[in-house]
Write a structure and sequence with these properties.
Layout (H helix, E strand, L loop, with lengths): L1 H20 L2 E4 L2 E4 L6 H13 L3 E8 L7 E8 L7 H11 L1 H4 L4 E7 L4
Parallel strand pairs: 4-5
Antiparallel strand pairs: 1-2, 3-4
Length: 116
């Protein structure tokens, strides 16, 4: 019984992570898009970054503080990072979010240059 409970708990945790990340899920051989709601902070930060990096090939902002807006994780891929070291790429993101960062406890930034 304990193994079954652990398995169900693990499955529920994985499902919640998928919902939070807004990924595509395959259920019974059919592809379904998980519905997720974005926090006000995620929407605000996404808007700022889209304005600052209009050529971004991909952008994902996730509130990893449980919804309180204290910590975010940002994944951004933009040609504007080409030729810059990682620290310089992160400085560009920090500069774009200078007003928002003042109210945060932490920020994880992942940057990349598009491959194509």
């Amino acid at each position: 019984m304990l193994a079954c409970k652990r398995s169900v708990t693990g499955t529920m945790t994985a499902a919640l992570r998928l919902l939070r990340s807004n990924q595509v899920v395959v259920v019974s051989g059919q592809q379904q898009r998980c519905l997720s709601t974005h926090t006000d902070g995620e929407v605000r930060i996404t808007k700022v970054l889209k304005e600052k990096f209009p050529s971004a090939a991909s952008l994902k902002v996730v509130d990893i503080s449980g919804g309180c807006g204290a910590m975010y994780e940002i994944h951004i891929e933009s040609s504007e990072f080409k030729g810059k070291r990682t620290v310089q790429q992160h400085q560009l993101v920090n500069q774009a979010l200078k007003d928002e960062i003042q109210e945060m406890h932490g920020l994880r930034i992942f940057t990349d240059v598009p491959k194509h």
